[in-house]
Amino acid sequence: MSQSAxxxxxxxxxxxxxxxxxxxxxxPAFLKMWARGEAxxxxxxxxAETEFVALPFALHIPIYQLPDRLDEVPRDKLVATFCSGxxxxxxxxxxxxxxGFDNVRIxxxxxxxxxxxxxxxxxRALKAAQx
Length: 131
Fold this sequence. Notes:
Elements: H1 3-11, H2 15-19, E1 24-25, H3 27-35, E2 39-43, H4 47-50, E3 59-60, E4 78-82, H5 87-98, E5 104-107, H6 111-114, H7 120-130
Parallel strand pairs: 1-5, 2-3, 2-4, 4-5
């Protein structure tokens, strides 16, 4: 993305953009897209965090490695950024936009919203949707 294109994107981030939540996606909506092969979860947490709470279905690239591993991030799917609290997910969201990704969202509220969706009933529904 050129500097002028990034500037234009920044100018579009007005009250209407933020107040409508266009930049975020709820875990249930994301997981439905993921099950259909339309989305990828970009986990930007550090390796130390993923040793304790792993998300094997996610593309794990620690935030500080993202510039060097950008080619691993698919451009043909929705990319939902994720971290434990949201700060790194927000940085990854902006970085990906600056790099020309136009289908990027942030998973709402980190662990609090994602983990309940990964209980046995939710996982069963995801596996059924993949079939």
